[in-house]
Amino acid sequence: MTSDRAYHHGDLRRAVLTAALDVIRTEGPAALSLRDLARRAGVSHAAPAHHFKDRTGLLTAIAAEGYTLFADALAAAPGLRERGVAYVRFARAHPAHFQVMFQPDLYRTDDPDLLAAKARATTELRAGVAGLPPTDDPRLAGMAAWSLAHGFATLLLSGNLDDAMGDRDPEEVFRLVARLLFSAEETPG
What is residue 120's DSSP assignment? Predict the structure, then answer.
């Protein structure tokens, strides 16, 4: 490979992010190495550092991208239950992002892009809870809804729900579980 090709890769940032997401999905975040990602992208070992500085910078970019995609998915879903379904759908479609997003020890929590994306996702999560009947503590209701969706998604990704679900669609199973616990959402006010 010539050095000219290494510097004219095209979208090196995206190529490194894609390679990193593949590694995380198959081996976990601990397996990430900028040198290995450069090899996978076909560029010099120093090239990824131009975009991410270091491994933590790369993981910060992954978390920020994940929260942006997550906020988009939540915003497109009406009501609390369907936002929960969107949460589960996001985790299934973006398991590597999901792994990194909820491990703040992996990334720079004060990164401005990350903070903006995370704030938008939080706003979308809270908007789903706004449809619940009034409660003494809306934050606890939000925590309960988040715990259900996050717990279900995490158990699903780790294979711990396989026996209980059988061959049923995970999104439909989540809807049933949410209906059991949040039936008040369907009760006329």
Answer: H
In Å, the largest CA–CA distance within the chain is 68
Q: Which amino acid is at 9?
A: H
Query: How many residues would you count in the chain?
Result: 189
pTM comes to 0.86
Distance CA 19, CA 88 (A): 23
**Distance (Å, whole) CA 53 – CA 50:** 6
Q: What is the 3-state secondary structure (H, E, C) of 72-115?
A: HHHHCCCHHHHHHHHHHHHHHHCHHHHHHHCCHHHCCCCCHHHH
Residue 141 has, within 13 A of its CA and on its CB side, a CA count of: 19
Residue 57 CA to residue 69 CA, distance in Å, equals: 18
Q: What is the CA radius of gyration of the chain?
A: 19
pLDDT, tens only, 60-104: 999 999 999 999 999 999 988 999 999 999 999 999 999 999 999
